[in-house]
Amino acid sequence: MGGKDTTGESVYESTNPARPGEVVARVGLADAAAFAAACRTAKEAQREWAKVPAPVRGRVIASIGRLVEANAESLARLVTREIGKPYAEALGEVREIVDTCDFFLGEGRRLYGQTVPSEMPDKNLFTFRNPVGVAAVITAGNFPVAVPSWYLVPALLCGNAVVWKPAEYAAASAEAMYRLFAASGLPDGVLNVVFADGAQTFAGLELALEEGSVHKVGFTGSSEVGRKVGELAGRHLQSACLELGGKNPMVIMPDADLDLAVEGALFSGFGTAGQRCTSLGTVIVHESVHEEFVERFARAAAAARIGDPEQDVLAGPLLDQKFADRYEEYLTWIQPHHEVVSGSTGRITEDNPRGDFDGDGGLYYHPVIVDGVRPGDRLFLEETFGPIVGVTTFSTLDEAVELANRPGYGLSSSIYTTNPKHAFRFREGISAGMVSVNNSTSGAEAHLPFGGNGKSGNGSRQSGMWVLDQFTRWQAMNWDFSGRLQKAQMDVAEIVPDLEFRI
Ligand code: NAD
To answer: How far does residue 192's CA lie from ligand 1's centre (Å)?
Structure first.
């Protein structure tokens, strides 16, 4: 509290998914009242923080970036240990925080408003970006430090206070990140971390919204919970920033470089064990190259290294037991009309090994490629967070776009083609917020808008200058120095044209 972690009665143990017996962090979970109290603390602290000049807040962001950079390896190792993300990827994730700080430290000296001409003389118009107030930020744990930084850094820079509720299974990473932010000299109460389960978070958020101590909700997680959080915010006349799930399509045209497409499908399908919001959902491949693509993709998946995330592997274990349980349920969606072309499915164990790897007791799963997926299948329509990729075919580009849009998500998408016309047609037709050409569905950069449409979100965007609209509200000011009351639309000089004039 007051800028420190809130601890509560019930205790949660975050464990290492590569060695589930190993506890990485033990945290007390807060109840709804404690969540709401943290929001009140933040509200109190925000008033003073907003008075700190934006360039000075930018210096604090610069310090956060330096601190994270100096601690990059230890933070990445902790991420690897806590959620099983391969170390190279975890280091990239930490780099993303530094990139985000690099972008926003300069924003402290911009945060531009405008001067706008008035329709009347002796009158000036201005716009200002005002901080929103308190941002309540709830995040998933598959990107336990980068995704939170997309909220925390711009929110703080803009003069807001934050109450952050990380995913429980990423508690140690969140705690470390909090400590790095706190070391920048942020005043007490400006950034608060609350560990709580979903139900208490929801109830606490409701309390805080009723009390008027939360002015912006940021939520990154499943579409199902995002819908509830969005409804709650809407009832309080707020528009939440919702960053939700994805069922990301990859279209492969007959003119594609198939080697490149296979590499992209492998990375976005099975990298991070398929647990990115931007992970590949379904490959939509032209019927003329379908057979060849599937054969090469299956071969690449079979050769990929899965194992200890501290080593050089494509994928480590699933994030946590909850995700392993859910993933096993997705495997039951495989139907008799499907063909699994990747060999074994399910958890990697002594009885179900992957080559000479028996899983070491960790939450490791075989990567699964399911061919013959049809548009009515659950596997085609719903997000399957984990290492499973569907494959279906198309004959025309219009059909491919229709298939790509059908699940109703709209986060990321990709097309492999050597024809620019195909790339631009696809871009126009696809409903996703992000489009890759000859690149996988994953791989956001810190200064491009990130976000989705449909079931992937409500159109909010993070990153770069676009996120400023989440954490500031425009204020319009007019200043009349004419010394008399000039009425807009009425006391406006008119210059009369001769509209009958013809040459
Ligand atoms: P989740 O929705 O179950 O949980 C996300 C967060 O919300 C967690 O901190 C959780 O404790 C909290 N939560 C759960 N129930 C809640 C409730 N009723 N009220 C308030 N908070 C609640 O998501 P998950 O399964 O942990 O994470 C995976 C999902 O997140 C996937 O769908 C993935 O695609 C999505 N995701 C999206 C993005 C993005 O930027 N679009 C990024 C990462 C993950």
So the answer is: 19
